[in-house]
Specification:
Layout: H1 2-16, H2 28-41, H3 45-59, H4 63-78, H5 87-101, E1 105-107, E2 110-111, H6 116-125, H7 129-137, H8 143-157, H9 163-173, H10 177-183, H11 190-203, H12 208-216, H13 219-230, H14 232-235, H15 237-251, H16 255-263, H17 270-273, H18 284-291, H19 297-313, H20 319-330, H21 333-342, H22 348-362, H23 366-374, E3 376-377, E4 380-382, E5 401-403, E6 407-408, H24 409-419, H25 430-451, H26 455-463, H27 483-492, H28 504-518, H29 522-529, E7 532-533, E8 551-552, H30 553-574, H31 578-599, H32 603-610, H33 614-624, H34 631-647, H35 657-667, H36 670-682, H37 684-687, H38 693-696, H39 719-733, H40 745-768
Antiparallel strand pairs: 1-2, 3-6, 4-5, 7-8
Helix pairs in contact: 1-3, 2-3, 2-4, 3-5, 4-5, 4-6, 5-8, 7-8, 7-9, 8-11, 11-15, 12-16, 13-15, 15-19, 16-20, 19-22, 21-22, 22-25, 24-25, 24-27, 25-28, 26-28, 26-29, 27-28, 28-31, 30-31, 31-34, 33-34, 34-36, 34-39
Subcellular location: Golgi apparatus
Domain Vesicle tethering protein Uso1/P115-like head: 368-736
Protein name: Vesicle tethering protein Uso1/P115-like head domain-containing protein
């Protein structure tokens, strides 16, 4: 009863100040002045406390007046050394400051810049002492003092810029300030620990100095410990997400922290976080458990954040990246990424991200490339749905999965890129098609990284393109293809006329991979020229037909290009729709990219192309048509023609440059030749391609105008080819104007000489006017 009486007396004392001399109400300002006077001058502790509670009670309704009259005194009270021992007063001070510094939002996520709370925050941050005082209060073990101190810091960190930066600067000058905040991560009271996580997310975003201090004071270990305590990425929920976000911010753009992360053996934590077995040679049962683990939305988000940490570690260059690539291999993450991307039932978005990061891990890393080349795994395929069940699994019932026979990781990558996800995982809706496309593009990215600087692999794959796989009777269940033979089959084949748009990607991805094998490597181009396609392969050594009955791969690609042109024309005439026409255009773009790459600085390949006189017509006809042909196809045909003319220096060529130039001038013409290439460069499907095109190819909404191909999502080019064309289009688009007798350096000199004469003639004409 004494406690209630005391509480009632305190409240009555506080509100008695609201009465005038005769009990009449008075203005808020007059009341505040009286309360402030008692707070500052009263010798009675209870009187001061009741006055502070009265000010706190008025803060919500008269926020501006309280700030103008009482804020300086409250800040002075905050700085008093003995406040930490007076828990009631400290709690009231912190609550009042939090109310005064709160800023109303004009709309969700956008604080108002005119609210009086902005002025109060500026007053609070004018000097570092108030911030230091709040940080010192965190040293107490009182739950409420810690909680309201953290809430006040959180409020200050969400104010409009540049105020959070000022607060961060005050943190850096506070004695042990960041260490005190970090120590609360060890709190067993989760509400305090979670408040600190939110503060760390705010202060580590853009301040490298704070990032370093937190990392070197045990931030990584504390955050990983919380993840373990919470049950990992699956059971941890949003708390684990905050921890992973914080680790990511400590690493992003901070080379010092990345080195520290590696040197303190944090990289080996990443694969187990994804529930990958820790052993170097995981047991099949453990791999099955990893491959078929369920994925909730929160668990998926957490897994993507773990992968983002790995991406950050291999996003740089130089010695640091090399050391990180080695640490990722030793820590088992390379194997984890390969298993997740190629042999698991993970959602497509997770498989694609794992493969893209794997591409970064193995690019330029011989030890990782060698590991992937020797890795054998069992891809996971989905069985057909039970009778009566929706094939798309829209009811979210789990499909049954089974293991495919063991195969090399490289073969699995080629199979994924060229054929898509195995089994019933193939797309059944437009959204699923884009997800599947993202996984196939990611597999292509890994193949590109595997071939980067790996000349032996390039030659090895090309050498096996037309070589059947010998199989013993007991090996009938094994793969019937090598990476090269699978690629060879996809290059030769065109999709059925009634196939959907995704079917075009088999030919298209085959073209991109083949271009990667040939780019800038004449030995691979020579080996590819020697491939001959006959009608009846016999024995393990390939076709035995006479050479006259065999066709070179160059001629096969030209034949397929001509067939695709014909099929597109028939599709347009039949009114099959824009998507079918775009599918054939994509196939033609792929073949033309291969031809441009193969012909470049390869006179022997160019001579092989010119050995059939009708081949020129396949390139010239689309250029000369005024309608019905995709601008990408027209521009690429012109670009390839220019390369043919530029590379036509083989003495054995059946159509020498002196014969070829008049044909190009009469059938195409210099102006149209140049305009086709320029229009190609201005097409958004080409112009918008960047180095990350394989990661972004599946993004974007469905086209709002089906007749506008510029809005069609999907992949049309890879970055190496776009970069190649941009670097060489100027010389190529002027190539047919150069003297047929010029070659090599003379060709470049003739081009610049022509340009000078042309500009001089234009200037002379202007002066004559």
């Amino acid at each position: 009863m004494s406690f209630l009486s005391s509480l009632q007396g305190t409240v009555l004392q506080g509100y008695a100040a609201l009465q005038g001399p005769q009990g009449q109400p008075q203005s808020p300002t007059d009341t505040l002045v009286k309360l402030l006077d008692r707070l500052q001058n009263s010798s009675q502790h209870e009187d001061r406390r009741s006055s502070l509670l009265g000010i706190k009670g008025m803060a919500r309704d008269w926020k501006s007046e309280v700030g103008q009259v009482a804020l300086p005194a409250i800040l002075d009270l905050l700085a008093e050394p003995g406040l930490v021992d007076d828990l009631d007063m400290a709690k009231a001070v912190l609550e009042t400051l939090n109310i005064l510094c709160e800023i109303e939002e004009t709309e969700p996520g956008r604080p108002s810049k005119t609210d009086c709370g902005v002025t109060h925050v500026d007053t609070f941050l004018m000097k570092p002492e108030p911030t230091h005082a709040v940080l010192s209060l965190l040293s107490t073990t009182s739950f409420y003092i810690r909680f309201f101190s953290l809430q006040l810091l959180g409020t200050l960190l969400t104010t409009p810029p540049p105020r959070p930066l000022t607060l961060q600067a005050h943190f850096l000058t506070a004695p042990g300030g960041l260490g005190t905040i970090l120590s609360i991560l060890d709190e067993t009271r989760e509400i305090l620990r979670n408040e600190v996580l939110l503060i760390l997310l705010n202060i580590t975003e853009k301040n490298a100095d704070i990032q370093k201090i937190i990392a070197f004071e045990g931030g990584f270990d504390r955050l990983f410990h919380i993840i373990d305590v919470e049950g990992g990425i699956g059971a941890g929920g949003i708390v684990v997400q905050d921890c992973l976000l914080c680790v990511g911010q400590l690493l992003r753009y901070n080379v010092s922290n990345q080195n520290y992360f590696r040197e303190t053996s944090c990289i080996p934590h990443l694969a187990p976080m994804l529930l990958f077995p820790p052993a170097q040679d995981p047991h099949p049962v453990a791999l099955d458990s990893f491959a078929t683990q369920p994925w909730s939305e929160q668990k998926l988000n957490n897994a993507l954040l773990v992968l983002a940490l790995a991406r950050t570690m291999v996003s740089g260059a130089g010695a640091g990246k090399i050391a990180n690539q080695r640490a990722i291999l030793v820590g088992g993450l390379t194997r984890c990424l390969a298993e997740m991307g190629l042999a698991s039932a993970a959602p497509p978005v997770l498989k694609a991200e794992a493969l893209h990061i794997l591409a970064h891990v193995i690019r330029g890393s011989e030890i990782n490339q060698e590991f992937i080349s020797k890795l054998v795994l069992n891809p996971l395929a989905a069985s057909s749905p039970p009778p009566g069940q929706d094939p798309s699994y829209s009811d979210r019932e789990k499909p049954e999965f089974y293991r495919l026979p063991p195969q090399s990781a490289i073969l699995a990558l080629f199979s994924l890129a060229l054929e898509g996800l195995p089994g019933a995982q193939n797309p059944s809706s437009a959204e699923d098609e884009l997800h599947t496309l993202s996984v196939r593009a990611a597999a292509l990215s890994v193949i590109d990284s595997f071939l980067d600087g790996n000349l032996d692999a390039q030659l090895g794959i090309v050498a096996t393109m037309n070589t059947p796989i010998p199989q013993l009777p007991e090996q009938n269940s094994g793969p019937s293809h090598s990476p090269g033979s699978l690629l060879f089959e996809a290059l030769q084949s065109l999709p059925p006329t009634d196939a959907g748009g995704m079917a075009a990607y088999t030919s298209f991805f085959a073209s991109l991979i083949f271009a990667h094998l040939l780019r800038g490597f004449e030995p691979a181009k020579k080996l590819a020229r020697e491939i001959r396609i006959g009608s009846d392969p016999a024995g393990p050594h390939g076709p035995t037909n006479d050479e006259d009955d065999q066709t070179s791969l160059v001629q096969v690609l030209i034949g397929n290009l001509m067939m695709a042109q014909r099929m597109q024309s028939q599709s347009n005439n039949a009114g099959d729709g824009i998507q079918r026409s775009l599918a054939w255009a994509r196939i033609m773009v792929g073949y033309l990219m291969v031809l441009a790459t193969w012909f470049w600085e390869s006179p022997a390949t160019t001579s092989e192309f010119l050995s059939e006189g009708t081949n020129l017509q396949v390139l010239i006809e689309p250029i000369s048509q005024s309608s019905g042909v995709d601008p990408l196809v027209q521009g690429l045909c012109a670009f390839v023609l220019g390369i043919v003319y530029e590379s036509d220096h083989d003495p054995a060529s059946t159509i020498p440059r002196s014969t070829l130039q008049p044909i190009l001038h009469s059938r195409v013409g210099p102006d149209q030749f140049v305009n086709r290439i320029l229009r190609l460069r201005e097409d958004p499907r080409f112009k918008n391609v960047g180095p990350d095109v394989l990661e972004l190819c599946s993004q974007g909404p469905a086209p709002s105008d089906p007749s506008n191909p510029d809005e069609e999502p999907g992949l049309w080019f890879d970055w190496p080819f776009v970069e190649f064309l941009k670097n060489n289009y100027v010389s190529i688009q002027q190539s047919i104007l150069i003297d047929p007798g010029a070659g090599g350096g003379q060709s470049k000199f003739s081009f610049f000489s022509y340009s000078f004469r042309r500009r001089y003639g234009l200037l002379a004409g202007l002066f004559r006017l």
